[in-house]
């Protein structure tokens, strides 16, 4: 029988620190982003990579809002082709992260990441392009599927993910399962890129 004193209130902060000293992470530190002039910075990046005649799209406001205060969440851009997802995720955001936060983001193509499972999983800050295109990689009877495992680490260990996909929520749920989708919702801000393809020429 355990006797408890009702007046002896637990200090959760001290308890979490005690676990951390033993290398047990109960409350992972999450990357905080606060960029007050985010829309101005994004606009400059879009002009640089897309040219001065590009047109600002409504979903870009949501990315700028995330940059203003990400609340410790990563970013997951979902939607139609040709709306600027890859330009934002693989070109503009790495520059912003390096310049303002002094953070270097690792980057990989989804179709290649399973083949490099161990290398990818060692990263704490990761950008994945075109989630959903990859196939499980098999070697010596072992199957590797990085994305669900990395999303798990985002929740459990505070890793930081920026990713984009052309898949729908239903397609992602079918590919990775509801568990991964739930953790993805808990660790990233979803921005939907809707509308027609802006590429022309």
Q: What distance lies between the first and last C-alpha atoms, to the nearest angstrom?
A: 76 Å
The number of distinct helices, counting runs of at least 4 residues, comes to 9
Reported for the largest beta sheet, the result is: 5 strands, parallel
Structural class: alpha/beta
- Which stretches are poorly predicted, pLDDT < 50 over at least 5 residues? none
Order of helices and strands: HHHEHEHHEEEHEHHE
Strand residues, percent: 15-25%
Q: Order of strands across the widest beta sheet?
A: 2-3-6-1-7
According to DSSP, the number of beta strands is 7
Q: How would you describe the shape?
A: globular
Chain-averaged pLDDT = 90
Q: What Rg do the Cα atoms give?
A: 19 Å
Helix content: 40-55%
Describe the protein in words:
- The chain starts with 11 loop residues before the first helix and ends in an 8-residue tail after the last strand.
- It is built from nine helices and seven strands.
- With 201 residues, it is an alpha/beta fold.
- Helix content is 45%, strand content 16%.
- It is globular, with a radius of gyration of 19 Å.
- It has a five-stranded parallel beta sheet, with helices on both faces. The chain has a two-stranded antiparallel sheet with strand order 4-5.
- The chain has helices at 12-21, 38-50, 58-68, 85-101, 110-113, 117-121, 146-157, 169-176, 178-187; strands spanning 74-79, 106-109, 125-129, 137-139, 142-144, 160-165, 188-193.
Quick tags:
two-stranded antiparallel sheet; 9 helices; 5-stranded parallel sheet; 201 residues; alpha/beta
């Amino acid at each position: 029988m355990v006797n408890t004193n009702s007046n002896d209130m637990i200090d959760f902060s001290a308890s979490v620190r005690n676990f951390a000293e033993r290398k047990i992470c109960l409350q992972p530190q999450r990357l905080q982003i606060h960029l007050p002039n985010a829309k101005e910075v994004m606009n400059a990046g879009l002009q640089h990579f897309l040219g001065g005649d590009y047109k600002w799209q409504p979903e870009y406001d949501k990315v700028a809002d995330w940059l203003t205060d990400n609340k410790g969440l990563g970013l997951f851009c979902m939607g139609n082709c040709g709306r600027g997802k890859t330009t934002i995720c693989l070109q503009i955001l790495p520059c912003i992260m390096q310049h303002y936060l002094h953070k270097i983001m690792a980057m990989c193509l989804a179709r290649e990441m399973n083949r490099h499972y161990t290398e990818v999983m060692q990263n704490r800050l990761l950008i994945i392009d075109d989630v959903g295109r990859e196939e499980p990689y098999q070697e010596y009877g072992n199957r590797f599927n990085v994305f669900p495992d990395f999303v798990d680490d985002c929740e459990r260990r505070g890793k930081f993910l920026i990713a984009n996909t052309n898949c729908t929520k239903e397609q992602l749920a079918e590919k990775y399962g509801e568990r991964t989708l739930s953790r993805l919702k808990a660790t990233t801000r979803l921005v939907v890129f809707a509308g027609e393809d802006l590429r022309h020429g």
